Description:
By secondary structure, the chain is mainly beta. The protein contains two helices and 17 strands. The chain has a single domain (about 1-305), classed as Porin (Beta Barrel). The longest helix is centred in the first third of the chain and has 24 residues, at about 1-25.
Amino acid sequence: MRKTLSMAFIGAVALVFTLTACSKDAEAVEAKIYGTINYKISNDEDTNGNSSMKAENNSSIIGIDASEAISENITGFAKLELGVDTDDTNNNPLDSRLAYAGINMNELGLLSAGRQASPFTTNVSGHTDVFEVYGSNADQTLFARDTNTVAYSNKIGAITFDGLVKIDGSTGKDGIDVQEGTLSFTDGMVKASAGVSNDRVNDINYYGAGVTLDATSKGMPITLGYTYTRKDAATDVNGNEIVASYITGKAKLTGGYGKVEDSTAYYTAGLSYGMTESLSTYVEYQHQDNTGSTLDTDSYSTGLKFSF
């Protein structure tokens, strides 16, 4: 069974490369293959005070972006992105992350359908989601990616609107299970986002806002990020995250703090170094400050990441 699945994995990767190569021969279609091999060694504690060390895959991916001009101002596009389990855990080396097709109507915006990323998680929580292993534990979000979705995006000046609906066909209300919308503003060193995610099936709303100050555009080696998110349910949950990074040469030092109101706090630190344009290494640490009698935990990780 393992040999069969391993051959399937090799065949899937070969297929992506073949599609890319073939697309280069077709003048009308543009395609780009991309990916990341990310591997880590971690030592994590549990709330019983026990620690375990493990070498394992850390969200490696492979994907392809494709587009084709329909007319002078209209373009068709598609994305296929797979999670690559380099350890072949549970005999499942490939996992669907993103798979959608769409149409870019220029001034009228982009419309797409398939398995897509959450605008709320990407645009709001993305301001503080900067670590390779830890961080973003206080963020209150519904999902990162999901199926059965239709998305629309449009940009007017410095403001971008991103919307998404999930239409499951079996458990939704009036056919729509989830609806999300965000507004993002970018101007120089400032990027800000705000949005809402509505889980109509379970009657839960998520609200959030975030901001990033990137002083590197002004010649200063510092970036700051902040995110506030709120889960509006029978018992409301508020989360705050803040991160700061200092960049010197090829090295970046990052610190973060996350707090779930009246609950757990997280202290995170990381150092990454770009060995080449594609290869980087990182070391990260996180302390989880639990409430009540639950023991605090400490976690450490180091890894290598190659992006192409």
